[in-house]
Amino acid sequence: xxxxxxxxxxxxxxxxxxxRYGFTPPGHRQGRGADERVQxxxxxxxxxxxxxxxxxxxxxxxxxGYLSRAEQLMAEAVGADQxxxxxxxxxxxxxxxxxxxxxxxxGGLLVARDSHKSIVAGLIFSGVVPRWITPRWDEAMHLSHxxxxxxxxxxxxxxxxxxxxxxxxxxxxxxxxxxxxxxxVCHERGKPLIVDEAWGAHLPFHEDLPTWAMDAGADVxxxxxxxxxxxFEQGSVFHVQGDLVxxxxxxDCADLLTTTSPNVMIFAAIDGWRRQMVECGSELFTDAxxxxxxxxxxxxxxxxxxxxxxxxxGAEASHDLDRLQVLIDVSALGVTGYQCRDRLRTxxxxxxxxxDHRRILATMSMADDDTTTDRLVxxxxxxxxxxxxxxxxxxxxxxxxxxxxxxxxxSPRDAFFGTTEMVDADRAPGRIAAEQLTPYxxxxxxxxxxxxxxxSVVEYLRSGLAAGMVLPDATDATLEQFRVVVE
Length: 487
Hints:
The chain is built from 17 helices and 17 strands.
């Protein structure tokens, strides 16, 4: 195939060149009806590109349409058998994969317990029963690592009838699993491996980045183009290879979940990003990795900041690390990551990708250069200088690995849709949670519906909230009360 093509972008260009007009949605008619105040902020171009797929692009729904060809080009570019685009993010894509592999399977699905909340939402939506794989744990740093092949093998030994396995790699911290080893363990049993690789869309395009899931033998891999690529928010691709997962059935599952009015701009950006990566991705990421290396050294030289690197990789840690994710330990400053995040946003007009009780994360991309990284280093230097003036944050109760691994009592679906009640925080330990409770970012639920709450986790969440933790999905934003199952 001709990888210099961009079928969706070319179709949009043709639509405007031919001066076409449609009496179909969207009703703004390429911006003619959009409020001038909106256009002053967004411009006219987004409206001109917002064309109903089935009306504006005449053969879109057909098997030989623009979307199908763009997906075929993507699959060829990254070496997958099939690729499918989604305009509802990897949150949709991973749910579709879960349904296709384990939608009505009585044995459930092996799921890494460090999974994103979108995966838990998929469990609730589909009714799939999770068979949790315990992640590796750095107790001193209170940081989880992706599970090892041995841990996945142990999970298979406990649940041999599971339909397949699902892991997350890279993690939001940039740490990566031994996907090849895990895929081998799954394939020994003739079972598929799904990899939520939302943070890894760039991995196929440079040899010095961690191994891409498809190259490591995964059967389905889901990527978010907007995270580490150059697409719009909500742009996602799920890739399929081998014969353990039926690509047509996977596409049908996605069709159950997706919108019937997809935004063509999201498709077009994915299409254009694939062409850019094929033509110059290696060069772009060579420069980005070199810049990241220099920037990591500059930040690590600042008093009180520790850029985490070797500590994250090893026999009892992660298999690999995406070094475009610059994870910075700020604990030596005597402050929390939450305080640093807020200080940088308020006083430096700089946002970081993530913050927790002792770390902040700067996510670098191929779009960064010396100007943007100079600003990052300058702002971090200012942060270190101002840290002694911070109010001392309240102490966060940090559970041990055994305490934070809650007992699963009933399925997430049964807990979420069951009869529930609100109880005061002091009465919550011992009760079965009916809600997700998710520090965000990174978006990994501390509590999944169906798990039995304990005192340690309740105290962790309440003390974290007081210290600046964001918990967007709690029914009671103050955590004075918890939603639990009526038993």
